[in-house]
Amino acid sequence: xxxxxxxxxxxxxxxxxxxxxxxxxxxxxxxxxxxxxxxxxxxxxxxxxxxxxxxxxxxxxxxxxxxxxxxxxxxxxxxxxxxxxxxxxxxxxxxxxxxxxxxxxxxxxxxxxxxxxxxxxxxxxxxxxxxxxxxxxxxxxxxxxxxxxxxxxxxxxxxxxxxxxxxxxxxxxxxxxxxxxxxxxxxxxxxxxxxxxxxxxxxxxxxxxxxxxxxxxxxxxxxxxxxxxxxxxxxxxxxxxxxxxxxxxxxxxxxxxxxxxxxxxxxxxxxxxxxxxxxxxxxxxxxxxxxxxxxxxxxxxxxxxxxxxxxxxxxxxxxxxxxxxxxxxxxxxxxxxxxxxxxxxxxxxxxxxxxxxxxxxxxxxxxxxxxxxxxxxxxxxxxxxxxxxxxxxxxxxxxxxxxxxxxxxxxxxxxxxxxxxxxxxxxxxxxxxxxxxxxxxxxxxxxxxxxxxxxxxxxxxxxxxxxxxxxxxxxxxxxxxxxxxxxxxxxxxxxxxxxxxxxxxxxxxxxxxxxxxxxxxxxxxxxxxxxxxxxxxxxxxxxxxxxxxxxxxxxxxxxxxxxxxxxxxxxxxxxxxxxxxxxxxxxxxxxxxxxxxxxxxxxxxxxxxxxxxxxxxxxxxxxxxxxxxxxxxxxxxxxxxxxxxxxxxxxxxxxxxxxxxxxxxxxxxxxxxxxxxxxxxxxxxxxxxxxxxxxxxxxxxxxxxxxxxxxxxxxxxxxxxxxxxxxxxxxxxxxxxxxxxxxxxxxxxxxxxxxxxxxxxxxxxxxxxxxxxxxxxxxxxxxxxxxxxxxxxxxxxxxxxxxxxxxxxxxxxxxxxxxxxxxxxxxxxxxxxxxxxxxxxxxxxxxxxxxxxxxxxxxxxxxxxxxxxxxxxxxxxxxxxxxxxxxxxxxxxxx
Amino acid sequence: xxxxxxxxxxxxxxxxxxxxxxxxxxxxxxxxxxxxxxxxxxxxxxxxxxxxxxxxxxxxxxxxxxxxxxxxxxxxxxxxxxxxxxxxxxxxxxxxxxxxxxxxxxxxxxxxxx
Lengths: 895, 114
Known about the structure:
The structure holds two protein chains of two kinds.
Chain A: H1 3-12, H2 17-38, H3 43-54, H4 57-97, H5 99-128, E1 139-147, E2 153-156, E3 158-159, H6 160-169, E4 173-186, E5 193-200, H7 204-208, E6 214-215, E7 230-234, H8 235-242, E8 252-255, E9 258-266, E10 281-284, E11 297-305, H9 311-328, H10 330-333, E12 337-342, H11 343-347, H12 350-384, H13 386-394, H14 399-436, H15 450-477, H16 480-485, H17 495-531, E13 541-545, H18 558-575, E14 579-585, E15 596-598, E16 600-601, E17 614-620, H19 624-628, E18 632-635, H20 640-644, E19 649-653, H21 654-660, E20 670-672, E21 683-689, E22 704-708, E23 720-725, H22 733-743, E24 750-754, H23 755-762, H24 764-798, H25 800-808, H26 813-842, H27 858-884, H28 888-893
Parallel strand pairs in A: 5-10, 7-9, 17-22, 19-21
Antiparallel strand pairs in A: 1-2, 1-11, 1-12, 3-11, 4-5, 4-11, 6-9, 7-10, 8-9, 13-23, 13-24, 14-23, 15-17, 16-20, 18-21, 19-22, 20-21
Helix pairs in contact in A: 2-3, 2-4, 4-14, 5-12, 5-14, 5-15, 6-9, 12-15, 12-17, 12-24, 14-15, 17-24, 17-26, 17-27, 18-22, 24-26, 24-27, 26-27
Chain B: E1 6-7, H1 12-21, E2 26-27, H2 28-38, E3 43-44, H3 47-59, E4 63-69, E5 75-81, H4 83-108
Parallel strand pairs in B: 1-3
Antiparallel strand pairs in B: 2-5, 4-5
Helix pairs in contact in B: 1-2
């Protein structure tokens, strides 16, 4: 008998360690006592002498028991491990011997587990991963609040002068400031490239707790006007353009033609002050006349709470300061205050969290549905293994031991399924990152780490229990007697088993209905979005950004830039074969939003700036409206002459015309910006154009005002070329870019997209959401179909004998067949009945992403229910056809 | 007689037990009996103290135990050397001999080493 087996036997026989030790020592004492008795002592005396001679029995015996019990535990563990390994080996062999069953089960589980791994990977990197700053929970974004033109309060960026006053007066937090992300042209060795650039206060990195991975950060001196400009570059840019060469530190590079010294490299996970877009270069923020302009709100302020301060107390503190500033500078600061948001909530806001949570829930549904299928498969297989179980039981194997074997097989299936699911999730995550664009914060940071491994492990265990436990218990319930008595026909295929399987089908249909309802609502949202008239004709338009370094040595003035670059460029492009028209705009509709502000209508007086009308500002060149097919409703388009004349002209959209000039003709009206003065003449409205949904397809057009080049010089730094073509616009990309490069070889061109792509990009978040939920729903539907099909085919096989009798007694085949179909459909309908109210409630989670359709939309729910019912009829019909081939005689003779 | 006994040095009891068991499987009493005879009663070993040593060596895998019948037909626990125990005995014997040799050389030294 081997050592391990003997120990197991010993354990079963109930021999305990203490008794063994006692026996062993007692034997020793008895021999001693016998010896003393032989030397002539009385038995009592001999015994007492033996005990004395033996020594401290109690202590020795305690020590022995302790040593033995440690040893015993170690042996138990190794026994368990040995059993586990053996069961695993046998389980794997059985799975390999049933390849069809195994592959179907593994694929099913992979489809269920894959989405969960994918969504968790994203949640892990976006939500769970700490921000790349020291003590990130102390960081807050500080914004100014202001009354919105239509009522309510808005919040936005900060005036530099206000920041200085806050910083000087607050005791609650340390503050730093940065400028919004900008961009600069870089050529270096190779293709010219547009870099995203940010400007940071020299103290920003210290406050955030960010250290360069090479070189140094900013010093106080770097922020002074007199010092040489210095730049920190990103790890990505360092790798892309300098091959991680350390010698680049200290070198001078040209950004927008201006020399600047590279002083260090920041790690790739830093995208501050942006939260989605990777930054390529950071420069020290330098502000001329910092206290001069309190009216220009163009900075992002970040704070770190000091020990003891909370968001609430710090907000109260800054609000007091802001109130003081408001009374001190009523002209600019009236009704302005401060709002503070933990930076973590700014990076990943509540909407994103909610969407991710919804997707995670949907993925969990898919897993549940997959588990139901897997459980169904296992149950069906358990029937085939009844004899095996009965024999094991007859040989004396305990029920839990047999169940353990079944569970280990399930564990193997779950683990293999998870491995395949992991492959699926890699593909899914790559697709999600690609599809998300900037709609998903921190999407560039998505990575695989120990938390994901832990999640996969936990998923394997939970999944195993979900689909393996009931079949394992069910399978081992079979008693030998039952098996023998029923001639091996019923057992786990009996009433309880079929009830459980039917319950699984009902559950699957309920869950599928919820997912399909969500997908259906998103599909309608998407259709509604794409169908929303944007106010322009977006087909056959090519767009590209040609950022323009104004003030660079090449083009000192806007006029120069126009005459030497823009005018010839538009001429050349318009002359290209296949081009119908071309124009320029600073901010493409649906891609970028930018400046806005208050303006005065000449002849009206306003008590404060806040009472003045408000508009979005864009800058368009001649030909833009025509190229985009935006109708000119009244007045005229910009003309070449506008750009040379000193008189400023503007064009407004219909919404502005209606709201600002309700009963007047806006054409010829004069509007002014900022305080009126001789240096700041008003501009004349020369035209009214149709409304365009500029910021989002879901948002109604806002009042908008267009300026033109080069009267609005500020806009030149960021210009998009729009080209309307006769055919496929992408075919012209090359010739347009070469036209640009002929004029200026160092001119970067980026973001080349058709206008259709721009529109699609503006709904990328919903498209991604629809894609994911749609995929999940599709998988769910496929699994549910497979589930009901499996259960019905199994049922038909099990009941062949019954059908045989029915047919023999004169039932028509079609009648029996109808019975089968009805039974399947009935299950599906139960599921639908449970799923409908669940979907009605659950789809409310989608409220914020839906457009043009309400959550819980009844027609959608009914349509989805009808689809599921229809599918269930087909899935039940297919197995029912087997009834027709039943020969009553053979069927009744069968076992 | 008792005053002439030498206390068993920490750790050497294991080696002595291994040596005892190298002849044949024995129960605890036998082992002690053999040790006393082999040492001519010059070593003092408490009977009780032998057992924790035996159990510890069994846990280390140096010896294995089995219940058997004693000379007078009583249930007794017999210990025998395992392969690992035999190896241990060889290794420990060698290192003990070297140790004793070094100690002896040092203690017998007639003059200060130059």
